[in-house]
Amino acid sequence: MTQREFYSDRSGESPLPAAQEVSKSSSAQVIDGKSIEKVNSLELYSRNAREWAGTKQESMLEKFKYYKARFSTGVAKTSEKYKEIVKEPLLPQSLYVLTATLLGSVLARRKGGITRFLTPSIFGLVAFGICMPKTFQNSKHSLSSLESKYFPEFKVRQDMVTAAISDNADNLKIKYYNIQPVITEQVTRARRAVEDWWKKS
After folding, report:
1. Could you say which residues of the chain have pLDDT below 50?
2. Does the record carry Lipid biosynthesis as a key word (predicted)?
3. Predicted structure pTM score
4. Residue 134 in contact with residue 88, Cβ under 8 Å?
């Protein structure tokens, strides 16, 4: 009795693993003969993360462009304002102002607290006005404009004080001009009296 051989007609074929069949209702995919199961929640999270990262990147780029433009505008305004205010070369004149300020500090080194603060400031401001007159006037005008814009009440009070000081100075000048002839006459009489007394003696 001969031995029965099954599948004799396929003896030359090498068996291969069958590709796994995936049901249409499954979320798996067959890639290179391998069944890869998809996790819907993980895929959704990954998609949301990519969208969030893209949105954040666009937002950061927009903010960067905004602040860059704002910085450029600020630099341009500062440069323009600087050119409007500063009219003299800074290097030699600023050294003179600094020297005057240090001189005031040296002169007031043994004085009280207020004097030690005011003396260098006064020396520096006077030197600033003398060495850089145009820049000094432009700085005064700029500070006055800022004061009117941000501290209007203080500016009004300052104008009132300045007007009162100016009025008092004008009144003193008027009184001086009015009393000057009287003083001159009294001095003349005193001189004549001294001359007469000297001649008699």
Report:
1. 1, 19-26
2. no
3. 0.47
4. yes
